[in-house]
Protein backbone atom coordinates (compact mmCIF):
# COMPACT_ATOMS: atom_id res chain seq x y z
CA UNK A 1 0.00 0.00 0.00
CA UNK A 2 1.14 3.52 -0.64
CA UNK A 3 2.13 5.91 2.13
CA UNK A 4 -1.08 7.81 1.46
CA UNK A 5 -3.07 4.63 2.16
CA UNK A 6 -1.08 3.80 5.31
CA UNK A 7 0.65 6.51 7.35
CA UNK A 8 -1.33 9.20 5.54
CA UNK A 9 -4.68 7.55 6.28
CA UNK A 10 -6.23 8.38 9.65
CA UNK A 11 -8.25 5.15 9.89
CA UNK A 12 -5.28 2.94 8.96
CA UNK A 13 -3.08 4.84 11.38
CA UNK A 14 -5.61 4.51 14.21
CA UNK A 15 -5.86 0.75 13.58
CA UNK A 16 -2.07 0.26 13.42
CA UNK A 17 -0.76 2.81 15.94
CA UNK A 18 -0.01 0.22 18.63
CA UNK A 19 1.65 -2.18 16.18
CA UNK A 20 3.93 0.59 14.96
CA UNK A 21 4.81 1.66 18.50
CA UNK A 22 5.77 -1.92 19.39
CA UNK A 23 8.55 -1.66 16.78
CA UNK A 24 10.13 1.24 18.67
CA UNK A 25 11.87 1.28 22.05
CA UNK A 26 9.91 2.20 25.19
CA UNK A 27 12.96 3.82 26.77
CA UNK A 28 15.09 6.63 25.37
CA UNK A 29 17.51 4.96 22.95
CA UNK A 30 20.34 6.41 20.90
CA UNK A 31 19.29 6.54 17.26
CA UNK A 32 22.41 4.58 16.29
CA UNK A 33 21.18 1.70 18.46
CA UNK A 34 17.85 1.33 16.65
CA UNK A 35 17.41 -1.79 14.59
CA UNK A 36 16.45 0.03 11.41
CA UNK A 37 16.35 -3.07 9.23
CA UNK A 38 13.96 -4.83 11.64
CA UNK A 39 11.78 -1.72 12.00
CA UNK A 40 11.71 -1.25 8.24
CA UNK A 41 10.82 -4.86 7.47
CA UNK A 42 8.04 -4.87 10.09
CA UNK A 43 6.67 -1.61 8.69
CA UNK A 44 6.58 -3.27 5.27
CA UNK A 45 4.68 -6.21 6.80
CA UNK A 46 2.12 -3.68 8.01
CA UNK A 47 1.83 -2.39 4.44
CA UNK A 48 4.05 0.71 4.62
CA UNK A 49 5.96 0.79 1.36
CA UNK A 50 9.25 2.59 0.78
CA UNK A 51 12.10 2.05 -1.66
CA UNK A 52 15.21 3.56 -0.12
CA UNK A 53 16.96 4.42 3.12
CA UNK A 54 16.13 8.06 2.41
CA UNK A 55 12.42 7.27 2.25
CA UNK A 56 12.71 5.25 5.48
CA UNK A 57 14.38 8.22 7.17
CA UNK A 58 11.55 10.47 5.97
CA UNK A 59 9.00 8.01 7.37
CA UNK A 60 10.75 8.14 10.76
CA UNK A 61 10.72 11.96 10.64
CA UNK A 62 7.04 11.93 9.71
CA UNK A 63 6.28 9.58 12.61
CA UNK A 64 8.03 12.02 14.93
CA UNK A 65 6.03 14.93 13.53
CA UNK A 66 2.71 13.18 14.08
CA UNK A 67 3.74 12.01 17.55
CA UNK A 68 4.28 8.26 17.25
CA UNK A 69 8.01 8.73 17.84
CA UNK A 70 9.43 11.11 20.42
CA UNK A 71 12.93 12.51 19.91
CA UNK A 72 15.30 14.30 22.22
CA UNK A 73 18.65 15.07 20.63
CA UNK A 74 19.93 11.78 19.22
CA UNK A 75 17.65 9.68 21.38
CA UNK A 76 14.22 8.36 20.45
CA UNK A 77 11.41 6.29 21.93
CA UNK A 78 7.81 5.52 21.16
CA UNK A 79 5.21 7.90 22.49
CA UNK A 80 3.43 6.11 25.34
CA UNK A 81 0.28 8.15 24.68
CA UNK A 82 -2.05 7.76 21.73
CA UNK A 83 -1.71 10.32 18.98
CA UNK A 84 -5.50 10.43 18.82
CA UNK A 85 -7.51 12.43 21.30
CA UNK A 86 -9.79 10.21 23.32
| Number of beta strands | 3
Distance between the termini: 27 Å
Provide the helix percentage.
40-55%
Give the class from helix and strand content and strand pairing.
alpha+beta
Ranges with pLDDT <50 over ≥5 residues? none
Q: Which sheet architecture does the biggest sheet show? A: 3 strands, antiparallel
Radius of gyration (Å): 12 Å
Sum up the overall morphology in one term. Answer: globular
How many helices?
Answer: 3
Oligomeric status of the shown chains?
single chain
β-strand amount: 5-15%
**Largest sheet, spatial ordering of strands:** 1-3-2
Mean pLDDT: 92
Order of helices and strands: HEHHEE
Main attributes of the structure:
alpha+beta; 3 strands; 12% strand
Describe this structure in words.
The structure is a single chain. By secondary structure, the protein is α+β, with helices and mostly antiparallel strands. The protein contains three helices and three strands. Strands 1-3-2 form a three-stranded antiparallel sheet. The longest helix is centred in the C-terminal third of the chain and has 14 residues, at 53-66. The chain is globular. It starts with 9 loop residues before the first helix and ends in an 8-residue tail after the last strand.
